[in-house]
Amino acid sequence: MDVTIQSAFLPHDDADAALAFYRDTLGFEVRGDVGYGGMRWITVGPPGQPGTSIVLHPPAADPGITDEERRTIAEMMAKGTYAMIVLAAEDLDGVFDRLRARGAEVVQEPTEQPYGVRDCAVRDPAGNMIRISERR
């Protein structure tokens, strides 16, 4: 089977802040920026990897979501427990230093984990957890 990951979705609660973080802080390229009804979907991805993208989306845009579910999503985003993504980098320390210097909210500095991975963690402006593993 030839199955690949095309897109992952992360919520945002401030499109401009999300765009600045993923483009300017993380260094991703913008592949799309679409608005509809006062909402924005922004597609970003790592340079040189055109087949893999992250879609930053309004979290409660689905018309099937109830008001109670919208409140729960907002509460979970505020706590940083709603969404997460794991990225990888060859120079973990360099990426971490860049993120910290540009004001990313640090959750964990680069650390050797007991399960055999060296990684760090930051949050994006919406509170999404971004773990970055060192590529070995």
What tags apply to this protein structure?
four-stranded mixed sheet, 136 residues, 3 helices, globular, alpha/beta
Brief rundown of the structure:
25% of the residues lie in helices and 38% in strands. The chain is an alpha/beta fold. The mean pLDDT is 94.
Question: What this model shows, in words?
Answer:
By secondary structure, the chain is an alpha/beta fold. The chain is built from three helices and eight strands, in the order E-H-E-E-E-H-E-H-E-E-E. It has helices at residues 15-25, 67-79, 92-101, and strands at residues 7-11, 29-36, 39-45, 53-57, 84-89, 105-112, 118-123, 129-134. The strands form two sheets. It has a four-stranded mixed sheet, with helices on one face. A four-stranded mixed sheet has the order 5-8-7-6, covered by helices on one side. The radius of gyration is 15 Å and the shape is globular.
The SS-based structural class is: alpha/beta
- Give a quick account of the main beta sheet: strands, pairing sense, barrel closure: 4 strands, mixed
> What general form does the structure show?
globular
Strand order of the largest sheet: 1-4-3-2
Rounded to the nearest angstrom, the radius of gyration is 15 Å
Low-pLDDT residue spans = none
Averaging pLDDT over every residue, what do you get? 94
Number of helical elements: 3
Distance between the termini: 26 Å
User: Roughly what fraction of the amino acids lie in strands?
Assistant: 35-45%
Amount of helix: 25-40%
Per-chain topology:
Layout: E1 7-11, H1 15-25, E2 29-36, E3 39-45, E4 53-57, H2 67-79, E5 84-89, H3 92-101, E6 105-112, E7 118-123, E8 129-134
Parallel strand pairs: 1-4, 5-8
Antiparallel strand pairs: 2-3, 3-4, 6-7, 7-8
